[in-house]
Write a structure and sequence with these properties.
Layout lengths: L13 H4 L2 H22 L5 H33 L1 H22 L5 H8 L2 H13 L5 H18 L14 H19 L8 H26 L7 H29 L1 H4 L5 H13 L6 H18 L6
């Protein structure tokens, strides 16, 4: 889908709204923080509750700014209502709930490994749904960045790969990534509407999809305790990996396409490592720098605009 004035925020945000690599880098940063907060919240906030409150709060945050655009874009949304509801279900309701559910069972190392499968999953869905093939440069970039991620999370010891044990949570997380791949590809087919209209509708609709599951969870599991840590976790996931990250991600995919945007999935564990160094006091090692270099090289190669034939 080509960029247009109707989908670009007005005013001083125009410059940022047309910088896909910066937008996708910010997305990766916010999602890395989401993984850390999600793991900290596991066992304290049930997964459906966390996802429902996350998207409900994100919807309320965006609605005041999105309302004028929603009124203007409503006819276009109604004309593509089935697709919009499906995107809300896959990218908002199902994906994030499964992600939080997986984090109750799996380890950080496993999720980082599986996150690296994101570009490959998106490439498969791009081929199946849109008939778009990876270019040679994109394939090379995916392999380079994958090698960089493995270098970081295996601490430079690739023999450790055979010692990793996968569990129920890993399968749930892989399913979540597969569903998000569908969202990433089909979001290119969204109607020509303002970015705020798109996220407000999908946030609100995604929260509505979760309502019956929330009722079931409240009956089946202990409710979330209302304490400072839980409230801060909810505020973070509503603002950064939800409102800001999805605005950045949707716009980045719109500008350069799903296949060229997909390698930025590999930047998520890189930022996760950086955040661990900053906030958890971990010390950088040589394998960190080697991995960072490989990831950035891969993202650069894969996300470049193809030369015209």
């Amino acid at each position: 889908m080509s960029a247009s004035e109707t989908t670009t925020p007005a005013g001083s945000g125009n410059w940022l709204a047309n910088q896909p690599y910066l937008l996708l880098s910010l997305t990766a940063l916010f999602w890395a923080g989401n993984a850390i907060v999600g793991r900290l919240a596991a066992g304290h906030i049930p997964p459906v509750t966390l996802s429902f409150l996350r998207w409900s709060l994100a919807f309320l945050l965006t609605l005041p700014w999105a309302w004028p655009h929603l009124k203007q874009d409503w006819q276009a949304i109604r004309g593509h209502l089935g697709l919009m509801v499906f995107l809300s279900l896959t990218g908002i309701g199902v994906f994030n709930t499964l992600q939080y559910w997986a984090l109750e069972y799996t380890q950080a190392l496993n999720t980082l490994l599986l996150q690296s499968a994101g570009p490959l999953i998106i490439a498969v869905w791009s081929l199946v749904l849109l008939g778009v093939r990876l270019t040679a440069a994109q394939a090379l970039g995916v392999l380079l960045s994958l090698a960089g991620v493995l270098e970081i999370i295996l601490h430079g010891d690739f023999t450790a790969l055979s010692k990793i044990e996968f569990n129920k949570g890993d399968l749930i997380f892989l399913l979540a990534l597969t569903i998000f791949g569908i969202y990433s590809v089909l979001s290119l087919k969204r109607p020509q509407i303002h970015g705020l209209s798109f996220v407000a509708f999908t946030f609100g609709c995604g929260a509505v999809w979760l309502t019956p599951f929330l009722v079931w969870e409240l009956l089946a599991r202990p409710a979330m305790e209302l304490n400072l840590n839980n409230v801060l976790s909810l505020i973070y996931v509503a603002v950064f990996p939800s409102t800001l990250a999805y605005l950045c991600f949707n716009r980045g995919v719109q500008l350069i396409g799903a296949n060229r945007a997909a390698p930025f999935f590999h930047v998520v564990p890189v930022f996760g490592t950086v955040l661990s160094i900053i906030f958890l006091g971990e010390h950088p090692q040589p394998f960190h720098f080697i991995g960072f270099a490989l990831v950035l090289s891969g993202v650069f190669v894969a996300s470049r605009k193809p030369k015209p034939a």
